[in-house]
Amino acid sequence: MTIDREHVRQGLVFLAVGGASALIDAGVFWLLVTLGVWPTLASVISFLTAFVVNYRGNRDLVFRARASKGALVRYSILVVVNLGLSAGGVALGTEVIGLAPIVAKVATMVLVAVINFFVMRLWVFRHGGAAAESAPSTGTASRG
């Protein structure tokens, strides 16, 4: 497999979208807690805000996919799987391997991010990318 410019572009934009989503999650959380919102509720609100940004950023910017209910459902399933992988990875790292919690968390985040890139590319947004880019633009909204 050769790495072409589109794969490099996707990887770099994927990292940027993920970074922006993380900053939004943390920033909204901090703001809400500072305003006196219960931390658990603040976490839910900040997560959902980042969820929207991450979904749209990956769909529109990284994979250039059309909007579809199927992609949103697949993305939502992936988020639930990510939660399990994240919790499981931290538990494995801390309780079985004996890593410091932050080391286990960061290692899990990196692994999950790599898995996410390929799962999004091959399953969640499978109709995006080069095929969507080569299609002529009609200037109308896509339906999916």
TrEMBL record:
Family from the record: Belongs to the GtrA family.
One Pfam family of this chain: GtrA_DPMS_TM
Membrane topology designation: Multi-pass membrane protein
KW Transmembrane helix (keyword) present: yes
GO cellular component, one term: plasma membrane
Species of provenance: Leifsonia sp. NPDC080035
Keywords, in A-Z order: Membrane, Transmembrane, Transmembrane helix
Biological process annotations from GO: polysaccharide biosynthetic process
Predominant subcellular localization, coarse grouping: membrane
Organism domain of life: Bacteria
Protein name stated in the entry: GtrA family protein
Lineage summary: Bacteria, Bacillati, Actinomycetota, Actinomycetes, Micrococcales
Cell compartments where the protein resides: Membrane
Domain GtrA/DPMS transmembrane: 14-125
TM regions (residue ranges): 12-31, 37-55, 75-93, 99-119
InterPro entries: GtrA_CellWall_Glycosyl, GtrA_DPMS_TM
